Amino acid sequence: MSYKPDGWATITPRLFTPDVQGLVDFLKQAFDARDDVPTGRPAEITIGDSRLMISDGGGIRAQLSAFLYLYVPDADETYRRAIAAGAETIEPLSDTPYGDRRAMVQDRWGNTWQIATRLMRS
Length: 122
Known about the structure:
This protein has 122 residues and is an alpha/beta fold. It has helices spanning 20-31, 75-84, and strands at 14-16, 43-47, 50-55, 67-71, 88-95, 100-106, 112-118. A hairpin with a 2-residue loop joins strand 2 and strand 3. The protein is globular and about 45 Å long.
């Protein structure tokens, strides 16, 4: 028997927000997230090969925001989708000296997303 559920990593980010469905809808539109919001337990969302838990905190946890670095196949397209879904630009798209094409946005729940595509092999 495994010490964690199948398909889960050892560390799983979890966000708390009173608007779980709104955040999940944003993640689907901006980042092609999969899965839905179940009743009575945290949402378990998949983006690429990563899992993210989202819940309302059960009334005892305050809303928390996160700073997440998200690798995607096409940073330009994903950045455009995130803006169309309501995110605001913090840093526009640019090529970094370490080989990533990257932009930074903030969603309306206060989460910061660095959207990146690796241009150079390290």
